[in-house]
Amino acid sequence: MTRSSPGQLEMDLAVTAKTVGLVRTIVRAHVRLWGLEPLVERTVLVLSELLTNVVKHVPPSGKSQTPSARLVLTRVPGDGLFLCVHDSDPTHPQLTLASPDAEDGRGVSLIAACADEYGVTPATGGGKDVWLTLFPGDRS
User: How far is the CA of 61 from the CAs of 18, 55, 98, 128, in angstroms?
Assistant: First the structure.
């Protein structure tokens, strides 16, 4: 289910590898519609990481054979974005030091490098919210 209003997008998702690509397209369009072109690529990058983590680490819920998540993307004052992905797994992602040849383990580092602020909050009713803020400007 998708709900959109001026400055906010909410999506309840059955998350699969195919879903990740479709959601990137929808989010990219919303961020551009809101006039936040400088944030498009960072938003899509961190969103891809968060949803891929759901695919890899969150067990399927209910009768579904796929994990689920809720995405909330909100435009905030200062031409910024607040992005939150809620899933049912209470395990918090951990910052790890991946070796140069490792195929994974860089997700939290990538989010930290891209986001102005990020965190993980236990969610009411179980699970967690992984959230971040993005603002225009050089992140190097």
Answer: 18, 12, 30, 14
CA distance 11 to 58: 17
**9-18, 65-74, 92-101: the lowest-pLDDT one:** 92-101
DSSP conformational letter for 138: -
Picking from 114, 111, 85, 117, the residue whose alpha carbon sits closest to that of residue 96 is: 111
- Work out the pLDDT band at 71, boundaries 50, 70, 90: very high
- Tokens 């969150």, residue? 58
* pLDDT confidence of residue 7: 94
What is the C-alpha separation between 104 and 98, in angstroms, rounded? 7
Contact at 8 Å (CB) between 48 and 26? no
3-class secondary-structure state, position 76: strand
Alpha helices in the chain (DSSP H): 17-33, 40-57, 107-114
The pLDDT value recorded for residue 140 is: 54
